[in-house]
Amino acid sequence: MKNFITRSSWHVWALTAAVVLALYFIVLFPTLRLLGQAFSSRGLEGFTTSLQGGQGDQNVLLNTVILGVLVGLLGMIGGFVLAMARTRLNFRGKRLFHWIAMLPLISPPFAIATATVTLFGKRGIITDKLLGLEVDVYGLPGLVIVLALSFTPVSYMNFCGMIRNLDPTLEEAAQSLGASHIKTLTKVILPMLLPGFATAFLLLFVEAAADLANPLALGGDFHVLASEIYFAVAGNGDVAYAAGVALALLIPSVSVFFIQRYWVGKKSVVSVSGKPAGEPRPLSSPWIKAPIAVLAGAWMTLIVLMYVTIAVGGFASILGVDNTLSLEHYRFIFRLGSDAITTTVSMTLVAAPIAVIIGSLTAWLVVRRLKKSAGILDLIGVLGLAVPGTILGLGYAIAYSSPTWLFGHQLLPAIAAGGSVLGGAVGIIMVYVARGVPASQQSSIAALRQVSVSLEEAAASLGAGPMAVLRKVTAPLIAQSMLTGFTYTVTRSMTVITAIIFIVTPETKVMAGQILDEVDAGRFGNAFAYCTVLIGLVLAILIATELLNRLVSRRSHTSKETV
C-alpha cells in the first residue's frame, strides 16, 4: 500500500502542479491581492475603523456579531426541531417534508426576503390587510427571521445525519433503568448531539455574518460589515478602504470556519457498540412529541407560505394590491431577461464540471499521493468556502479587473468587472468554480477513504500507471461523490449574488443580479417571476442529476461486484 501511494510518475507531478496552479489563481491570488490592499494605509484605516464600530452612528461590528449569534441560535434550534420531526415522529409525507425543508437552499437569496416584505411588511397581506397592524420588517428582526429560514437547511441536514447515527440501545438502557422520556432526551440524546449543535451554530454564524444579499434587500438602516464593504465600493469607489473592512470580516469568518472544521468537526460521542444497532425509535412521550410537532409544523407552514407567495406573486399584477391574474411579469422576464437566464445556465454548466474535476483531483492527491503536504493542499482547496463570498468577490475585482503581469510579461488579460474579456464571464465562472471546489473535494475525500486501496494496487500490479489507475479504477468508484459536488456547484452558482456582485457587468447579466435590480426598483412581481423560473431551472437540473446518480450507482455497484 505504501509503495503504491508514494510511487509517482512525471504525470502525477504535472497533475499536482496543475491543481496547485488552478487553486492559486481561483482562490489564493485574489485573496492575497485583497490582503495587499487591506494592509495599505487606507486599508488599515478601514480595518481599525471597523473594529471601533464603523464611520456612522451604528457599531457595524457589533451589529454583525449580534446578527450572527441570533441567526446561529434560531437556525440551530430550527434545524434540530425539523430533524427530530423527520427522524423521530411518525407521519405520512416525510419525503415531501424533506423537500420543503430544503427549498431555501435552491432559491435565490432575495426570494424569502421579498416574500417577507409582501406578507409581513407595513402594507403586508397578513399584517396590514388581515390583522390591521403596521409592522416594520426592515432591520434586525426581519433579517434574523429571513436568514434563519434561509440557512436552517444546513443545520437540518447536519442533525438528520447525527440523529440517525445514534445508537437506540442507549435510550432503551436509560429507560430500563427508570429514566423518563424527558430525562432520556436531556441526559442521553442531547449530550450526544452537542458537536452537532456547535457545528450548526458556527456554520450559521459565519453564513449570517458574511451574507450581503439579504442586508441589501431587508437591512434598512441596520448596517453590517458586509454591507459596509458594498457601500464603500459602490458608493465611494474606495476599494482600499473596503478591503480593510473586509479584513475585519475575514478574520473571524475564517477562524470560526476552521474551528468548526478542525476542532468541533472532530469532536464526537461514540456509542458503546460503535455503530447504530437499529433504526431510531419514534418518540412516544406526548410531552416531547407535541412541542416538536407544533414547532416543526409552524416552521414548515411559514416556509410553504413564503414559496406560495413567490409562485402566486409572479402571476398577480401587484400581489396584495391588485391580485388580477396576469402573465405580464413572465412576458417581461422572457423578453428582457432571457439573456440573463441563458447566461446563468451556461456559465453554471461550464463551472460545475471544472469544479468537480479540480475538487476530485485535489482529493485524490490529498488521500492517495501526498504525505506531508497533503494537509496544506487540503487547506488551500477549502479556502473558497472559508473566505466569505463578499470578500472573495472583492478580491476578484482587485486582482482581475486589470491584466495580470509576471516579471514584465502579461499572464492574463482583464477577466473580471467592466472592460474585461468576454464581458467578465470568465471571472464569474472562476468564482463559481472556487465556491464549488470545496464540496467536491470533501465528498471525494470521504469516498476515497471508503474505497480500499487494494483495488488500485491490483491495477498497478498489472502494469497500469498512476494516471491509468486514476482514470479507469478510482474515478468510476467515486463517481457518486463527484455528482454530489456537481449538484452543490449548480445549486450555489445558479443562486449566488454575494460572491459576484462586484464583478457582474452589463454585458454578462445573471438571474440573481436581475432579481436584485427588480427588488431595488420595487417591482416585486418581476422578482417573483424570476425566482420561480430560477427555482424551476435548479430543480430540473437536480432531477436530471439524481437520475444520472441512480444510473451511476447501479454501474458502480456492478463494477465493485466484478472487482
UniProtKB/TrEMBL annotation:
Pfam families: BPD_transp_1. Keywords: Membrane, Transmembrane, Transmembrane helix, Transport. It is found in: Cell membrane; Membrane. It is a multi-pass membrane protein. The keyword Ion transport does not apply. The chain crosses the membrane at residues 12-32, 60-84, 96-120, 140-159, 188-206, 239-259, 292-320, 340-367, 379-399, 411-434, 477-504, 524-548. One of its GO terms (cellular component) is plasma membrane. Residues 61-260, 341-545 form the ABC transmembrane type-1 domain. One of its GO terms (biological process) is transmembrane transport. Its main location: membrane. It comes from the Bacteria. PANTHER family: POLYGALACTURONAN_RHAMNOGALACTURONAN TRANSPORT SYSTEM PERMEASE PROTEIN YTEP, PROTEIN LPLB. Belongs to the binding-protein-dependent transport system permease family. This is ABC transporter permease subunit. The lineage of its organism: Bacteria, Bacillati, Actinomycetota, Actinomycetes, Micrococcales.
